[in-house]
Design goal:
By secondary structure, the protein is largely without helices or strands. It is built from one helix and two strands. It has one helix at residues 37-46, and strands at residues 22-23, 35-36. The longest helix has 10 residues, at 37-46.
Length: 71
């Protein structure tokens, strides 16, 4: 079971809010919910998947995860 008092961390770099503002760009929840805006921007730029820029790679839209904002 996960500890509900755990500090949120970035799903890309695993650092917390001390490394920058954490945002929730899609409908993912739990530990996959948060990402630093800088990490997301870098990932979107270097990913080999062209859809990384507009959709969640963790849970595809067909399974219910939708990007809430294009950052």
């Amino acid at each position: 079971a996960s500890d509900t008092n755990e500090e949120p961390t970035c799903r890309i770099c695993f650092a917390g809010s001390e490394a920058g503002q954490l945002v929730s760009p899609c409908l993912c929840s739990g530990s996959m919910r948060f990402v630093h805006l800088d990490c997301l921007t870098k990932w979107r730029t270097v990913s080999s998947n062209p859809l990384s820029y507009v959709q969640c790679e963790v849970i595809p839209p067909a399974l219910g995860c939708t990007v809430l904002a294009l950052l």
